[in-house]
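New to this. Explain the following:
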Amino acid sequence: MKIVSLQTHVVAVPPPHLGGMYWLFVVLKTDDGIEGVGEIYSATFHPRAMVPAIEDVFERYLLDQDPHHVERFFRRAYSSGFTQRPDLTMMGIVSGLEMACWDIIGKAANKPVYELLGGKVHERLRSYTYLYPVNSRGEYDYGDPDLAAEYAVRAMEQGFTAVKFDPAGPYSAFSGHQLSLDVLSRCETFCRKIRDAVGDHCDLLFGTHGQMVPSSAIRLARRLEKYDPLWFEEAVPPGQEDAMAQVARATSIPIAAGERLTTKYEFFKLLQAGGASILQMNVGRCGGLLEGKKIASMAEAFYAQIAPHLYNGPVGAAASFQLAACSPNFLIQESIGTWVGFHADILKKPLQWEDGYVIPSSEPGLGVELNMDVVRRHSPYTGERLHLQMAADPVDVRDSAPARG
C-alpha cells in the first residue's frame, strides 16, 4: 500500500465562527483506493502560505510511502531542514497528515483507530463546553457574569458536568501582564455567580490564555481557590515551564496547560518542571495521534491526566476522541457545545454526544466522513483573519473586557 495523492480543503466557517475562522482538512488516497482524512490545527500563517507548505511536506515525506509507517514519517518531517526540534507549523502539518494516515490504517484493518493504539479504555468520554452566552441583542457577550451563570445552568441542564469561561480580559500579543484590580474582581465574581448557579453539579474550568505574569496569576488564584475550580488554565504564556511551575506551587487549584505546545519534548519539560498536572494537547498540533499517545503515556508516569484541547473542526475532534478513548489517564474532553450546527453539517454523520458525554465511534478509522458538497460550498476561505488572533496592542487596564478568540 502506498499513498499516491493529497487534496487540501480550506473551509470557511460561517458566523459565529465557532471553532475558528476556517478549518484545514487534508485527504490522502492510496494506490488501492482507500482515503483518509485529517485536520491541521495551526494558526501561525494564513492558508495561502499553509497550503504550499502542506504540499511540500507531503511530496517530501509521504508521497509513495506506506501510510503504516507513521514513525518514519514523523522523524523525517521533524528533522526537516536539519532541525530536529519542535516547530509549531511543521508539527501542525504533520499532525493532520498523520491522522489521515491513521484513518487509512484503521479502514484497512476494519478497526477504529483506538483499537490500534492500545484498545478502548473508555466507553464514553466526559465532556465540557465553553460558555457562549448570547445577550438580548443576539450578540455573544462574554463580559456579563449573570448571563454566564444563566448559560452555565443551561449547559448543566443539557448534561454537561463542567463548564469553562475566561473573564480575565483580552488576549494580547504583549501578554503576560499584571491584571488590574477591576479584572481580578470580575474574575472572582464570575466564579462566585457560576458556582452559586450550578452548585456542586458542575466543575468550574477557569480558562486563561497566557494573559498574566506569574505574580498576577498567583494573586488571581488565591481569590478563586474558595470556589474550588477543577483547573486554572495556562495562566502564563507558554514556553517558560518554571514560570508555570511557580504558579502551580502557589495554589491548590490544578494547573492545566498545553494547547499551544507541540511534541513530547515540550510536554516533557512542562511535566518535569511541575508546571501542570492536566495536559491539554491538541491532536491537530502536537504531532498527531501517535505523538499524542506518547504524551499521554508520559503523563501517566507523572500521575498527570489529559484533557484534550479542541477549538477546531470535527475531523480533529474525531481524532481527539480516538486518543481519549484509549488513554487510561483521560480526564475530560473539550466539546464545542453539543457538536450541532456547522460541525454536524460538514460531516455525513455527526459526532455523537449524549447527556454530557462524547460517544467514540465504532466505525473503522477515525469514524468520520466529510460531506464534500458542504466542503465545496464553503471553500475556499477568502478572509484575511487567521484561525485565531490576539489583540495587536498592549492591554489598557481601563478597557479590558473579555473576548473569545
